[in-house]
Amino acid sequence: MSNKTRYFVAVTGAILVIGLGTGMVASYMGVSASVFTSAAGPEELEYVPAEAAVVAYANVRDVMNSELRKRFQEMEPTQEHKNEFEEKTGLNFEQDIDTVVAAMMPKTNLATNPEGAFLILARGRFEAARLEALAVEHGATIADYQGKRLITHHDTDSNDTSHEDMAVGFVEADLIAFGSATSVKASIDARRENRNVVGNIEMMRLVSELDNANAWAVGRFDAIASQTGLPTEIASHIPAISWFSAAGHINGGVSGVLKAETKDEASAQNLRDVLKGLLALAKMQAGNQPGMQAMADSLILSGDGKNVALSFTLPSEVIDVLEGFAKGRKGMRGPM
Amino acid sequence: MNADMATPGPPFDNAQGRQMTPKTQTQGASNAPRQGHMSFLSASRRVFDLSLGEMLWSRRTIFMGLVVGGPVLLALIVKGVELFGMSALRVNGQRVAGFGIFGVMIWMLFLRFIVPVLGVFYGTALMADEVEDKTITYLFTRPIPRGAVLVGKYLAYLACTLLVVLPSVMIVYFLLVPLSALPSTFGSLVIDMALLGLGLAVYGAVFAFVGAYFKRPLVIGLLFAFGWEQVVMALPGYLKQFTIAFYMQGLVPHAMPSDGVASILQGMFRENPPAWVCLSWLFSYLGVFLYMATRVVERKEYILEQ
Known about the structure:
The complex is a heterodimer. Chain A is α+β, with helices and mostly antiparallel strands.
């Protein structure tokens, strides 16, 4: 073997060894996804505790500026009501909120007692002093937690001892956390101790697959389904879905995709079969109505193995119909 | 093939072997050395050492470089497009993520195109080139088993192609798959690489036999890889069981998109036999064709036309 051949073998071998070594370290030594990237998902995810079962995101600015929202704008609350809220809080939803991240933590008896299970993180421009003053006026207390300002409100009217205090934490200059006092504190701890959802490889894998969506939700389906208090007859018929994601893009219309990852391939096949039947039924029902027909045609089922995906598009015909319905209802309510 | 195979074994009697031949020279089994000084394995290793360098620095390697460089270039373009915030590939309005694109490239480019192409061009040339260049004499007059010549050359082909194809796949993987998805997708990469290795081995064995047995092996090889396999795979029925691609696709870990043109492809993929059946058939093909190629080389009389 000549030296030239030896060098070639060494170089190509080195590429293979480096690549395989990197992959093996990442796969088997427990390297977190956060080590590699901060690109997947919004920065607010660092404030979502690691145990979160569902994470949702909405780009409020995109949605507010969308053509769709402009079409339905006249059906929103009157300017009078909005001004009253703005005057009290100094907050104009249309202009001051950029993004919202919501998270749901797993909890027993979630259906009957959801308190403490939710956390909302809103990024935007807030007048902290004004909000604090308003809160104190309504009986809230101000305190510091890990160097962050925390407004806590205790419901004195409630006799229930399990009732949790609500809190708003100013976690960053342009980011507030809202939820029960426990969940807001957990959020601050999640960032400080770096024990957040960004370290959840499965969750982040699903988040990284979302593209061009200005609203999405990702979560562990089994964690929710087991706590929603569904009757056993219904729960036993739900396919064994382990993860789900829903992503949508709102602008002139609405398009999106719902994905589910089941525990095994048989469950996925079962779910695909059920959805195929439902799609066929929807197409049959929509036969005579052009708008609904276009919508039914836009429903596309795909996926293989343990994955099932359903993509959809709300065509402009359907939006026209919905707009017509909404305006008609408003018109009917108007004179009353 | 150079006539400078190293010892042990006596040197070639006449380095100008061609001058010994009259109008035609017959290299039949009867002319083979009756007594080999080297074992089959040692002889194969010697031929391997000699052939690897020859294969790597031949004109075919430029072709191979171009073939495996294509996916790398494509991956660079996809990466560039994604860096600008655009989706490189969409199916039914859904963005196909980096690993999805990698899966499509593994199946459509590597397993269905690059592996058969390399198998055809290298596999058929293992013996045919020596016959065409009239250098087979030098090999067959060595005191080594004739079958070892083919096995050594086959191993050199395998090493040569694996050393070029696998690093290319590795580069494509790291370009396309986001690092955050690396822990969850690495297992598939290892399966893909093993599959590519198996594919190169099986196609190589089949075409080594074709090259050893038939007179126009390249034409027959191309007809098999891009005629027979492509047509039969698209047809319903049992004929696809007589292809290599049918068993390879049963082992591909990537899910394919399932609508439009892709759904037609998926329809083809649905008849996947279980993995153990695919592996059994592929290893059977490998063993049977390599054995048959060796037997052909040992028994066939190669006629070197002047």
